[in-house]
Amino acid sequence: MDQEAPKLEELTFEQALKALEQVVQQLESGEVPLDESIALYERGEKLRSHCQARLDAAQARIEKIVAGPDGKPASTVPFDAE
Which of 19, 43, 75, 81 has the fewest CB atoms found within 10 Å of its own CB? Predict the structure, then answer.
């Protein structure tokens, strides 16, 4: 694993997602020794958690934007509607 990887809190969502995809690819390859696999899995879990926190923060910001002046939702459209 790259010991010079940037700190998690410094990563953008996109950077963290790309790093997570790389971790998954390495783990799926089956070519990583067990100890390194465990370290990769731990890093992957931290990256997943970081991505989820960034998504949750974005959702909260969006919900705040669509709230009416009284603080109540101005719309009933769910956040993840397509």
Answer: 81
Is pTM, for the whole model, over 0.85? no
- Give me Rg for the CA atoms of the chain: 18
Tell me what pLDDT residue 6 has: 72
Residue 67 bridge partners (DSSP): 73
Helices (H) and strands (E) in the chain — how many of each? 2, 0
- Tell me, what's the pLDDT at 44? 96
Q: Give the residues of the chain that fall short of pLDDT 50.
A: 1-2, 81-82
Cα torsion angle, 21, 26, 30, 33, sign: negative
18 sits in which H/E element? helix 13-29
